[in-house]
Amino acid sequence: MLLECFHHATRSNWAYAYDEKTIHLRFRTKRDDVDEVYAITGDKYDWEAHYKELKMDKLASDHFFDYWEIGIRPMHKRFSYGFRIRAGNETVWMVESGISHEQPTPPGGYYEFPYIHPVDIFRAPEWAKEAVFYQIFPDRFANGDPSNDPEGSKEWGGQPEQGGFFGGDLKGVMDNLEYLTDLGINAIYFTPLFKSPSNHKYDTIDYMEIDPQFGTKDDLRRLVQECHKKGIRVVLDAVFNHSGVEFAPFQDVVRNGDNSKYKDWFHIHSFPVTVDENPANYDTFGFYGHMPKLNTANPEVKKYLLDVATYWLQEMDIDGWRLDVANEIDHRFWRDFRVAVKAIKPDAYIVGEVWSDSMLWLMGDQFDSVMNYPFADKTLSFFSNCDKDGYMFANEISRLLIRYPQQTNEVIFNLLCSHDTPRVLTMLGEDKRRLKLALVFLLTYIGTPCIFYGDEVGLRGGGDPDCRKCMEWDYDRQDRELYDFYKLIIALRKNYPMLRHGRFRFLKAEPGDCRVIYERLDDEMHFTVWMNNTTERTVLSHPMETNDWHDALSGQRVEVTDGAMNLELDELGYRIIYRKII
């Protein structure tokens, strides 16, 4: 055994309380190097009376390592533990004090989980596990009230430009709620609604007002009420990293310079402020001078922004916040933000925009979730062609799973595209078969899925602004077959709780093979998903211990012969098979 590959830590995603009675432990070994791992546990105050040896499951594997996991329910909400690792005839023990070929005398030197404190448990909103989100870019979804269109708005459906408007508004969303419920949507994420001169609204000039082109506060209040009546949650976008250059406090700094009472609201390098120069003499989002960065460590700024967050929760009864450029704001601000938001609505869903490993924000004291762009990257890279085989795909997805505790994985915000990326159909070469495979994976994977408006009717487009085309409302121009497929797979996810809560694991993913099989499993049901990511018909086989499987979409029985299931799959085809355990 390569002992130097062993890893465990008494923190974060390696040892954590999943709920008030259960602790999850994880352990890492070199890939295919170890036959079994046991957790050796006992109470540090009475080891012998509570001693147990518990076999760990291999949760996942990546290019280099195997990851083992077990859930433990200690009698007294505390325990000490170590690991026994076996490969062939060799057995070693690993505890906090080191690795040895003889079991160290417990409990001294063993790892400890001192106590499960309910206040320390990371609790994500339960409803987020049930949600299928729909992202709406308001200017481009539907124009319900032409009277509030910005001057110079273009005819609906024209080619988008960086600075153009099309007149989409809250009334347009209200008019199409039945469309969303028919599709199966039960949560909406809006890009910013607050007053701003742009079509995207990420350069806010008044955080306490709805932009007039979208409507009024009363319009938003009525929309949220109607959404709630239909079982739809509403999440708004908050841009707290930076404001727009027309934000009143920043304009005060422009006018009054060093004498402005707002000068410490921003990161000013020198006076006078030079708005039109590049680079600006103040910190900005990226290098965009029209988006000055806010100083969230300033107590006045913090109070202002926290008041904004709580105002919209209280006044409009929204269900959460998506936080723009969240990784560029200090952690102390986000800790205070969580306290303020959860005090108003304990089950509010807080989603940060972080494009990379986000563990620092997902310790239970800041966000509930992040936008899982790494998931989108790995998924689209695999389904766009067969350059990356199933082995590499499984390794990459498994590595993402190991990044976070289970309760985080259950609500992580999974997406295939957004307003910041090309359209998913475009990224997949406009091949609907590949889009269907990617959608099946999205909606049968662990986490909270999100669909970008219009993907379900075949909208195409490259990067900004092409990805922000107007929603197609002409029935004859919509891809209704694709719409029906989205509706079918969304319904499948909503009809089977196991697809929202069950364990995820790859069963078959081999080098040089673009076919994969994975499972979702809980105590009541077992799903397996079979995917042929090749352009040839194939027969995919895998051992099965029982013969009680059915096709999840057709209901037909699927036979097992001589202990194996052999499924014929169309080119770029799939099958979803399930069995009831109890």
Largest sheet report: 8 strands, parallel, barrel
> How far apart are the termini?
39 Å
What is the tally of beta strands?
30
How are strands sequenced across the largest beta sheet? 11-12-15-18-19-20-21-22
The top-level CATH class of the largest domain is Alpha Beta
Strand content: 25-35%
Cα radius of gyration in angstroms: 26 Å
Which CATH architecture of the largest domain is right? Answer: Alpha-Beta Barrel
Mean pLDDT figure? 96
| Number of DSSP helical runs | 14
Estimate the global geometry from the Cα principal axes.
Answer: globular
State the share of residues found in helices, binned by percent: 10-25%
Segments where pLDDT lies below 50 for 5+ residues?
A: none
By CATH, the superfamily of the largest domain comes out as Glycosidases
- The CATH topology of the largest domain is given as TIM Barrel
Query: Structural class of the secondary structure composition?
Result: alpha/beta
What is the total number of structural domains?
Answer: 4
